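Appendix B. One record, verbatim.
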Amino acid sequence: MTEDIQPLASLQFIPYIDSEGKLPEFVQGKIGVYAIFDNDKMLQFVGYSRDTYLSLKQHLVRQPEHCYWLKVQTIDKPSRTILESIRASWIAENGSQPQGNGTDATKWNDPIDTKTVMTSQEVANYEGIVADELAKDKLLKNVARRVENEILALLKSRGVTEEIRFNPKLKTSGLLDLK
């Protein structure tokens, strides 16, 4: 593709998950800018990446309820200036900043912090552990596993067949991120 900015409206909607439960393979290893839309085709997030496929997979895990449609523009040579220009142009074309680029940016860009979704029982157990760091790590790992299972079940219900592997080393910190 050329490095000209293609208007967002001129790009076709691509299903986030195809009929076989996979992400679009044509973006694997591709440098590009992507717009993510919800089920109603409302813009949720605009991002860019050196490997669009891996970024899309990460977003699917972090925000599965908002990832239904895509628009993508790939470029041949890595250029942060070009990527940022395309992203800014698409956000301006949208007329307002998507929540994923504003108030919800950390939910789209950062590892999932499972401490924020602990049950009241998990919080009480965690706060009850005073000096035993190993016990705290174990509890956080169990919370991370619970949240991971919830995410995997949601993705399975959407027909996702992609291999999803979380980084096991982050779980003891209560974080979930793809490996």
